[in-house]
Amino acid sequence: MKKLVFLIIVLISATSYAQDMSAGFTYLETGKYSEAQEFFANILESYPTNKTARLCYGRALGLNGHTVEAKELFTKLQADYPTDFEVSLNVAESLLWNKDYEDAKTMYVNLVQQDSTSFPATLGYANTLSNLKEYDNALLYVNKALEILPGNANAMVSRKYMKLGKAAQVLVFQDYETAIALLKQNLQDFPNDNDSTMSLANVYVTSQDFEKANEVYNSLENPVAGLIGQSLVAHLMQKDKNALELATKATGLAQNDSIKMMDSQERYVQALIWNGKYKQARTHIDSLTAQLGSNSRMVALSASLSMYTGKTNKGIDYYKTILAKDSTSFTGNLGIANAYRGQGNLSKAYEYAQKTLSYYPEQKDAKALIATIDNTLTPSVNTTAAYTRDNGDNEAYGASINTTIPFSDRFTTSLNYSYRTTENMTQGNMANNTNIVLGAKYRIKNNTWIENTVGFTKADADTNSYTDVNGSIFLKTQPFALQNLEIGYSRELQNFNAALIDEKIFLNNYMLNYNMGTTFNLGWYTGLMHTQQTDGNSRNLLFTSLYYTFTKSPALKGGINYQYLSYAEQIPEQYFSPSKYQAVEAFLDLNGTAGKWSYNANVAGGYQFVENDDATTLLRAEGRATYSLSPRLQLGAYGKYSNIASATAAGFEFTEVGISLRLLVGKGKLFQF
User: Fold this and answer.
1) SS3 state at 56
2) What global pTM score does this model have?
């Protein structure tokens, strides 16, 4: 459009000045705007009122980056020539240069009304609408411009970018079909166009049509860009080893492509992180920073590495650095939102997720994060029902309902009601117990919580009925990256069977649990418990587990467990209470999701040693599956079996099956951040 307006100026200036200004016209036509600016400034010293010189000088100013001065000049020119159509065209274009799109729209509407056959007016109006993201009308008018001048290169390029903008706009609302159609139209006009091809691949990635995304990446003329895209697709398909192979290949090819070198190096570092090669990633980031200097992309890689290695606070600092340079950064805003969520600071996470949406309306990941936070803080009801049977011929039925009400992101209350009835089918003795417990959780700072419950237990047995208090208090924290510490006390009734309920034995448990993770997939969990019982007995329990995470999705880990249990007094006629019990087992644990299903399975086998008796085998297994009927309602079922002696008060093997239901109550959280 710039060239066309310029040609019009040349035509209307075919006067005695044309010979004198021909050099200036050439400067403008060939993009030498500084020379044109100087040239026409000299002309205006001799001919200050010459309209053509003033127009050309204004255009040289605007195209040379001095858009405000150009706008002022054209406004003064319009005052001298208020009805001149060509002057008005330049005024309108100067408004576009200054991003005064609404004012430009008003001017172009008048210009198009004056002359609907004017190509520069029609194209200028289309471009103005495009800048206002009014893509439907923009496409309507750019097509009208192409009817006036079929095949015009400027108009064709403008239409390409309008379709790119419209495709991006509908993609936000997950209208994949429309986005794909628009981008394919572009590729008909501009075969192998890089912008349209890359956008088409992005649509396929976003819609999780990974096969077609790979086809598009394979078709790219630049093999480095194709490999970078394919690496991302491999990661999304949970093929991280393949992602690293593709990224490595891209870096090799990019050595001769300075433009793609940074992109390939960035993907390579990301692939290292995806594969848990954190030391290599850190070394590579440092090397790139030394070569290229620190920039937002390097900082973003450091932030991502910090999040993967559990250094959330460090990740937050990196994201703050990005936002200090660009407060609208998508990576910075959504990244710090996720980091604050990982830190346990949900109010900050919510704030930055909302900021992300303010800059990127309807952004899918930001909306998903907000929905996750809202669901976490929405009042909920959880119910379970279970049936248990052991080889001592005890049968038990139990049910519970737990209501959780968050009053803020820091304070949550709960109310739990449970009922359990048990009967020995051989001896005929029966008992039941009811628990009502009020709970509260308070976040002291970040992921440090104090949790407390208090309530009562009412028990009815054949010879003994009573009511007593129960409760607990725990401090839960993350003292270091990838580490969790839990210290607390709990009081509970020993209610495994009717005989034990009749004995009215309460357990006062003092516990310490510690889990230490690492960046190389090895973990170590240790639990210590000392119990003082109301019957005068006491118990010590040690459980420790060394485990390794084999895969992340689904998460598969396995390892070795060791357990040691001892009682001060042995009362085998009432409950399993050895002076020494040990167990060693190997285990596998699997959990993951598949569509609306989530699942968990655990199996372990080994040997157990009671007192100085010979070893006996032990086996335990547990499985659970949950189906999301809706985002607010989940239904689950589980089953478990164990013959590990310390798992029951009587040292018997047992089987349990149950169902669960979780419902979010109300429209959302009860408070505003």
Assistant:
1) helix
2) 0.86
